[in-house]
Amino acid sequence: TIKKKSDVEYKYKKQSGGHGQYGHVKMRFESSGDMESPYVFEECVVGGAVPKNFFPAVEKGLQEAMQKGVLAGFPVVNLKADLFDGSYHPVDSNEISFKLAAKLAYKEGLAKANPVILEPVGYLACTVPTSNSGDIMGDVSKRRGRIMGMSESTRKGYTVIEAEVPTSEMTYYAVQLRAMTQGRGTYTFEFVRYEQLPANLLAEVISAVSSIE
């Protein structure tokens, strides 16, 4: 997603004999404040600078472009895009021209809007022998987890530890929990939300994705 606001202008113009292609958009990109939906598209163009029949093409270009973000190629969410101005050519303008102009405006605009990578975070509930609770909490902290609380289990001699932990830190957790509790610990883990990836891990993620590609 992005953390700042950016205004960008992009003019797509191509002439190759006969009818050319012309699409000109001025767009504003910012956070929508809604993590549940990928994007909000608005158009506040006045005076017919961009005819209404080209609005769907601009939105289509935006939808396609959002499948690949400007950081490591991950899809983008929580984006508000506003088409506020532009221009058209009575002969050369068409849907494809405005679709391409929107895609290129998106790429330029997001790069200027402080893009960040989000990571999934889940809710962890561990039921462990009380004698192991200190070790388990220490291990959760090492996994960048936040302890949310502790309570007595209905099972005598056991404690329930609740925490929020990045999903990426839960690899092989079942094996490690069994080792720390001599096979007596159990847990559940479920997705809660996305949060911004810490800056110190950004280069590592981008590098990992680049090596796969």
Structural features:
alpha+beta, 213 residues, four-stranded antiparallel sheet, elongated
Task: Give a description of the structure.
This protein is α+β, with helices and mostly antiparallel strands. It has five helices and eight strands; from the N terminus they run βββαβαβαββαβα. The strands form two sheets. The chain has a four-stranded mixed β-sheet with strand order 1-2-4-3. It has a four-stranded antiparallel β-sheet with strand order 6-7-5-8, with helices on one face. Helix 1 packs across helix 2 (about 95-110). The longest helix has 17 residues, at about 95-110. The chain is elongated. About 25% of the residues are buried. The model has no long low-confidence stretch (mean pLDDT about 95).
Summarize the structure.
With 213 residues, the chain is an alpha+beta fold.
Topology readout:
Layout: E1 6-14, E2 21-31, E3 39-43, H1 55-65, E4 79-87, H2 95-111, E5 118-129, H3 133-142, E6 146-152, E7 158-166, H4 173-180, E8 186-196, H5 199-212
Parallel strand pairs: 3-4
Antiparallel strand pairs: 1-2, 2-4, 5-7, 5-8, 6-7
Helix pairs in contact: 1-2
